[in-house]
């Protein structure tokens, strides 16, 4: 048996995008796969409630985009050729903006700005701690991408049927 080990990618680009619907999130995932191929290393979807509440309630989190958009996507791309990676990502964003798939976007300019964007997605526990213990219940489920939106809407409606003041906070990943 032979094992070939590839070097870790030397370059990384992170972008945060705003979208109007989950259908646009799915379309953007397809575009990202097409434009970036194996350089697409993470694709994280955040519903408005997650993004908005995280930047409002978690200390030290800064909103790189306004909090009024329905969906957000955190996209991470890695490769060994910085110029090509940056150009591919810029082409993806330009195409997605031109086709009205995304509404707004910001691209990391440093490891610090990339880390700040990832901090929004990575502080689910910190966000949960900002609510009284008796009012939070967490679930981690796996679903095909094409079933995520329906699932989130169904759970949200069922929670509201139990208590009109209750709400759901949803985010999802495709890596």
TrEMBL record:
GO terms for molecular function: flavin adenine dinucleotide binding; oxidoreductase activity. One of its GO terms (biological process) is respiratory electron transport chain. The keyword Membrane does not apply. It holds the Pfam family FAD-oxidase_C. Residues 9-165 form the FAD-binding oxidoreductase/transferase type 4 C-terminal domain. It comes from the Bacteria. InterPro entries: FAD-bd_oxidored_4_C, FAD-linked_Oxase-like_C, FAD-oxidored/transferase_4. The keyword Oxidoreductase applies. Keywords: FAD, Flavoprotein, Oxidoreductase. Signal peptide: none annotated. Gene3D superfamilies: 3.30.70.2190. Its cofactor is FAD. This is FAD-binding oxidoreductase/transferase type 4 C-terminal domain-containing protein. It comes from Bradyrhizobium canariense. The lineage of its organism: Bacteria, Pseudomonadati, Pseudomonadota, Alphaproteobacteria, Hyphomicrobiales.
